[in-house]
Amino acid sequence: MTKPALVVVDDSPTTLHQLEHDLQQKYGNRFRILEATSCQQAIDQLREMNVQNEPVAALLVDADMPEMQGSEFLQIARALYPKARRILLTTYEDSRAAIQAISSALIDYYIMKPWEPPEANLYPALDDLLADWLAFYETSQNQLRLVGHRWSPQMHEIGDFLARNRIPYQWLYVENSSEANQVLTQLGLSLRNLPVVICPDGSYLVKPSLVQLAEKIHLKTHAEQPFYDLIIIGSGPAGLAGGVYGASEGLHTLLIDQEAAGGQAGTSSRIENYLGFPVGLSGSDLACRAVIQAKRFGAEIITPQKATKVRLDGQYRCVELGDGTELRCHVLVLACGVSYRRLDVPGIGHLTGKGVYYGGSVTEAMTCIDEDVYIVGGANSAGQASIYFAKYARHVTMLVRADSLAKDMSRYLIDQIASTPNIEVKTSTHVIAAHGKQHLESITIFNDITQAEQTLPATSLFIYIGAEPHTEWLQGIVRVDEKGFILTGSDLIHEGRLPEDWALDREPFHLETNVPGVFAVGDVRHGSVKRVASSVGEGAMAVMFVHRYLDNIALRT
Ligand SMILES: Cc1cc2nc3c(=O)[nH]c(=O)nc-3n(C[C@H](O)[C@H](O)[C@H](O)COP(=O)(O)OP(=O)(O)OC[C@H]3O[C@@H](n4cnc5c(N)ncnc54)[C@H](O)[C@@H]3O)c2cc1C
């Protein structure tokens, strides 16, 4: 099989030679290094390779080529090889332009010339980019096939679950795919058996539950032990950070998640404001890195498993799971985050999962190719989703209740939306009804300024409207505010008095709930910042208080 290519483009023969040499040294055994002295030569070569179906892993181009800018070349190359990593070679003086190109030309990285020694200035960045590409490439050679109806909520639930666990798959809709119908005939299955998941080895699952699917893709669904030092409910950024720090500091740690590791962040197509990732990274990439890190330190992660009840048994904290098992621990960290508020208008309920979706982007975007998509919401998650959908959909309309995006959205997203021609923003507008029998067919919207009502044909409506905490299952255990967010630390002190049920002679630690040894971190906590970085910070910080708590009760094992 042809080795994937690293394509290098520079008009200086000396630089080109040096780069070819350095790349050959480190990557020559796994990749072909192809050189071009002009962008046109490289484009011709890429077109030919594309016809031959030859893989390209990365493109490295000088930022300042004579016939076109390196960033322009990377945009053209992106149409041919969208997954290839795009890297600009730049000089110290040009680094500002390279930083701008991160947003405008969607480049993945820039490398400053000269890069000697390559061990410090070239290989670390390339290792990371190529590992990421290889993960995609190797798994895409082995993808699952998901056969079902276009408007089946189960299809979307399975697709979402696979996407969030970074398992590559292909949608095959029986409505428009001859392959879907062929596959069903080959397996002796009928439309009554849908959805069906077919694995690369030919085995298949009919109408699988998420637990069956998780087992098939080798996720751990049950805890190994009945007792842990630390149990964390939720493996979003806060829970994963708690897992990494807890396990790395010697605590026997278990994370439990009802969906998939990554939490809300895992559904984000591109997180651009997380420290240390100047070109941004997808939420699933961040989650995948954190999962590996937590496991490397010995944390156990079980998913999908829902925590349904907390019980206190003296100094032990007990967690009941959806499958009826009970696990015990010294310390419990609640990192259960939030999910989108429901849109309460006629027609939405029965169309949810059939054209109406809460959140979602990475999975559903692929199903909206050349369609018109409506996005409800005006904050960052709606903005990110619109930009992502615009890559696949014909037209994206944002329906924003406020009179401007500036009220709730970061400037960088507003700018990206303004420069994306197929996104339209309708402000002072909200959805008042959704219509359709088997699936969404149209929506009625209302403009607060003109008082005009309009019914528009629509097949895809994605809702991103504020958040509700996952705390209904904790009623009677931890104190929450009027919106259901968990009170911790000094927020529990009212008019100088601790809660009546607080039995210790110390005040609750920061992040500790009204139950000693039960902490709350991230979005689910009252007063939290609702950002990836702050959730990660709280998850990490909680572990320090966990140690203090354990020291206090002298229980360290
Ligand atoms: C689409 C989108 C884009 C975003 N983009 C950005 C961005 O660019 N930058 C940024 O800083 N922030 C962004 N955010 C916000 C950020 O993702 C959140 O602030 C962050 O994920 C909160 O982390 P968390 O761990 O507290 O909670 P969550 O991420 O909500 O994770 C909570 C986890 O707990 C699990 N859980 C809940 N209840 C239970 C239970 N009973 N049993 C088991 N598991 C349970 C859930 O399944 C979930 O996985 C975005 C959010 C969304 C939705």
From TrEMBL:
Keywords: Flavoprotein, Oxidoreductase, Phosphoprotein. Residues 5-128 form the Response regulatory domain. It comes from the Bacteria. Pfam families: Pyr_redox_2, Response_reg. The modification 4-aspartylphosphate is found at D62. SMART domains: REC (SM00448). This is Fused response regulator/thioredoxin-disulfide reductase.
